[in-house]
Write a structure and sequence with these properties.
CATH topology: hypothetical protein yedk fold
Distance between the termini: 18 Å
Oligomer: single chain
Strand content: 25-35%
Number of helices: 3
Structural class: mainly beta
CATH class: Alpha Beta
Number of domains: 1
Helix content: under 10%
Radius of gyration: 17 Å
Number of strands: 13
Length: 231
Amino acid sequence: MCGRVIQASAPLRYGIVGGLDVRDSRLPNYPRRWNGAPSQEFLVVRQNHKTGERSLDLLKWGLIPSWCTDPRGGRKPINAKSETVAGLPTFREAYQRRRCILPVDGFYEWRATKQGKQPYAIAMKDRSPFAIAALWENWKDPTMGEWVRTFVVLTTPPNDLVNCIHDRMPAILKPTDYERWLGLEPDPHDLLAPFPSEPMTMWPISKRVNSPDNDDERLLQEISLPDDAAA
């Protein structure tokens, strides 16, 4: 499960992550999100397969398949398992033709304890942005006649770091994988392996993060835990 992410850097920095021409004046403005949640808009890197051009666009988190006839957009899944994504009707076409990258500064996960669920922030040790594998779709709202662009995050089994608190983690791509992931290769499934633990770090944070209404940099402050609650 991946249900909260941090996307608080400047678009210019995310353009570097996605290999964009960062001098492009079309880089969008967007709200900085320290506690980004599903249904909100996020910057996503996409590639035009006709021109090869990459762009950084705002898409809504929660996938609506292009063929969906539900006037409300259906169930809008936020995660797709990398192990099954290629074969499921909801994701199959997007996996083959509309792969994208969600650039983030980190993400949150919760560990079950006797005292309740304890949240943790997870990021790179050097705090550099990184790329999460995702899929995107276009869907036409039948009530408004407007096109809605949405995305879903792919997940994998956890690495040794995240395994201490949860049994899933986002599918993080290595920079050398971006070209293949954004291209037209029909099934780059080998890229969806658990990301190595060594470059990453994790620390406990306040339960303020439980509410998406709390969205500020103070959420990243490390807290002390009693010995029986530590990961």
